Amino acid sequence: MLTPVTDRAGEGAGLRELLGLLARGAPAEDFARPAAAARAAGAPAGEVAALEEAARVALEVHGTLLRHRTREAELTALFDTAGDLAALRDLDAVLRAITHRARQLLHTDVTYLSLNDEAAGDTFMRVTEGSVSAAFQQLRLGMGEGLGGLVAQTARPYATGDYQGDPRFRHTRAIDGAVAEEDLHAILGVPLRLGARVIGVLFAADRRPRAFSAREVALLSSLADHAAIAIDGARLLEETRRALAELNAASRTIQENSDALRRAEEAHDRLTGLVLRGGDITEVAAAIGTLLDGGTLIHDADGVELARVRAHPLAPPSPAVAASRGSGRAVPREGSWVCAVLAGPELLGSVTLTGRADLDDAGRRLFERAATVTALLLLLRRQVAETEDRIRGELLGDLLSPSADPAGLAVRARRLGVDLGQPHALFVLHGGGAPRPRLLAAAAHQARERGGLAGVHHDHVVLLAPSRSAGADASGLAGALGRAVGGPVTVGAARAEGSPAVLPAAHAEALRCLASLRALGREGDGGTLAELGFLGMLLGDRADLPAYVRETLGPLLDYDERRGSDLVGTLRVYFASGMSQARAKDALHVHVNTVVQRLERIGRLLGPDWQSPDRALELQLALRLHQVSGGAAPGPSAP
Question: What is the pLDDT of residues 263-279, one digit of tens each?
Fold first, then answer.
């Protein structure tokens, strides 16, 4: 019975020794000692086997603890690195610290760092640690070339145990020669990333072939992440320093020219205040001319004059505007100065200063400031106009909807300064090859000029504006819009008077007119169905016969309805008799003088040209349509 107890005691002592070894962090070879001692002491095989199993488990625990300690040391080193990098302010110092710490952490022969050159489209060696080759230190790698170029191109880490014989990489003579001169074999490269952008590559390399572990790749990648942030911070700091240096230089220059500075500040405040108080473009032009003692012209990006003060009309010189836009400065031009009005890269227009060929540097800067303020005003105007155009376009779409509430829409229109109770005309536009947004912008400009509304309805640009003569306005609008979009614009028009409720019908009529104009080949023209007569009715995409009859015979129909006469019947018989008064009086069974009196009254109602060939043709067509659609038959007629 004593032997098992002794065995257990020996086994327990061996286990305690293993635990002690673990606690002390003893070397791995020490863990075989308890089992060897038991074997040497003649311990039973079971005890020896138990100790050997315990030693195996203890070695696994020892390995895990060692890995944790290593990882802890690496993390501590990374945190220390992050702190060190954060404390550095000079970009070169940051880069040197990165490569030095990478060499310490990975225990490699050489570490180096390349930065991407976006302009050249390659990556170049920026700093090295442990390098001895001048060619290697000045190496540039095209995107995709060598290991570094591949990392820079793909934003993925790559490692090789022996670079010279690795077929995965695109070898070049320059890269291979520099690597051979540096006697490098094992190379690991990881990207320096800022978000999705790669700014460079961090490398660790050895002069002997070997494999890099996943732990080493992860460690160098973590260091690269810290490094990228530090590099970006150092770059920003350098840019800030440069900006401050430039600012200090500018401040010294301004200090030397304090009078000019005060004048520029006062002028800028005056112009900005004018804009913020709601001043218009003409007031700004007048202020610029007063400040610089010259005449001022302001044009938009298309060369349309927006304002002119103390100057003769003058088109903006395109070469000067282009030169100013490219340089960002005002440029002289034949006794005047021209400055492009810019919002970032976008050209908003130009300002021309006349009568000041001798503008000095201070005056030039003041003129450029004035152009900046002008850009602010034009942007504000455009934003307000775009918002107003959108609101007006939505209102126009609602007005043209048959299910809309006319009373509510009239109230909304009055809020926008549009009185729908006044005579209006509805214009439907077709721009041919002009893009619809450009045509809509031109129509919106015309709507603002005319106090109307513009928008897109059923795939057509539509304009509603006050009008006393829809046909004349349509023709003028076609010309103005054609000049604005640089191509023919066809305009179909219809009168819209009395109430918003008539607008859907007016829209349908204007569409038919537009279709008729295009069918007649009158691209770039404008008109109404009434002006087209029966041709508009025949060629329109949907004939409105009652409207045509009413448009043509309306005065006679109204007269007959009021007087109980039949002038319409008399006119029908007159035309049927070949416009012969003698044959007409026989058909009507009246005296010829009665026929003469009726025809005179018809002339007063229809106008003096009612017997001209074109007008007579339209009247006869309307009479025929009136008859076949159920119009009253001829009967007794008053003289």
Answer: 666 666 777 777 777 77
- The token pair at 475 is 């023709």
Of 262, 515, 496, 491, residue with least CA distance to 400: 496
For residue 597 the two structure tokens come to 């009196």
Count CA within 13 A, CB hemisphere, residue 447. 31
Q: In the structure encoding, which two tokens stand for residue 375, read together?
A: 């850009």
Residues above pLDDT 90, as percent of the chain: 23
The answer to whether the pTM exceeds 0.70 is no
SS3 content of the chain, % helix, strand, coil (to 5): 60, 15, 25
For the chain, what is the total number of helices (H) and then of strands (E)?
Answer: 23, 16
- DSSP bridge partners of 510: none
For 1-29, write each residue's pLDDT tens digit. 334 444 556 567 767 776 777 667 677 67
Given a cut of 90, whether residue 411 has pLDDT beyond it is no
Range list of H helices, 400-433: 406-415
Picking from 103, 106, 170, the residue whose alpha carbon sits closest to that of residue 143 is: 170
Tell me what pLDDT residue 173 has. 92
Q: Please report the pLDDT score of residue 378 as a whole number.
A: 84
Beta sheet of 526-528, edge-to-edge order = 453-457, 460-466, 424-430, 490-496, 526-528
**Alpha-carbon torsion (403, 406, 410, 411), positive or negative:** negative
How far is residue 352's CA from residue 324's CA, in Å, rounded to a whole number? Answer: 11
CB atoms within 10 A of CB 232: 16
User: Helix axis angle, 613-628 relative to 545-563, nearest 10°?
Assistant: 80
- Can you read off the two tokens belonging to residue 251? 């401040």
Ordered alpha helix ranges (H), 451-566? 470-485, 503-519, 529-532, 534-539, 545-563
The dihedral over CA atoms of 432, 436, 437, 438, expressed in degrees to the nearest 10, equals 10
Q: How far apart are CA 639 and CA 624, in angstroms?
A: 23
Determine the distance from the C-alpha atom of residue 495 to the mean position of all C-alpha atoms in its chain, rounded to a whole number.
39
Give the single-character DSSP code of 497: -
Residue 325 burial (CB count, 10 A) = 18
The rounded distance, in Å, linking the Cα atoms of 419 and 499 is: 10
Instruction: Label residues 515-527 b or e (16+ Cβ within 10 Å = b).
Output: bbbbeeeeebbbb
User: Cα–Cα distance between 569 and 635 in angstroms, integer?
Assistant: 7
Do 47 and 11 form a contact (C-beta atoms < 8 A)? Answer: yes
